[in-house]
Design goal:
Blueprint lengths: L1 H13 L4 H27 L4 H19 L1
């Protein structure tokens, strides 16, 4: 019930905003998931290389976004 209500409010708030604002909001949500879930798990598995792997992943995503458009 709460999830449905949250999606209705989100649609009502974001239906008239620009694509850039939606993209920024999505990026913030994705980074929250990354920080909360994925980084601790990566740190457990690859303790010494976790930071390097994360930076390389962000650089790869940045480079691909620049190549695409």
């Amino acid at each position: 019930m709460l999830s449905g209500l949250a999606s209705l409010v989100g649609y009502a708030v974001f239906r008239h905003v620009t694509a850039g604002i939606v993209a920024a909001t999505t990026a913030i949500a994705a980074s929250a998931i990354l920080v909360d879930t994925m980084i601790p798990e990566a740190f457990e598995e690859a303790h010494d290389f976790a930071g390097l792997i994360i930076v390389l992943g962000f650089l790869a995503a940045f480079a691909l976004s620049k190549l695409g458009g």
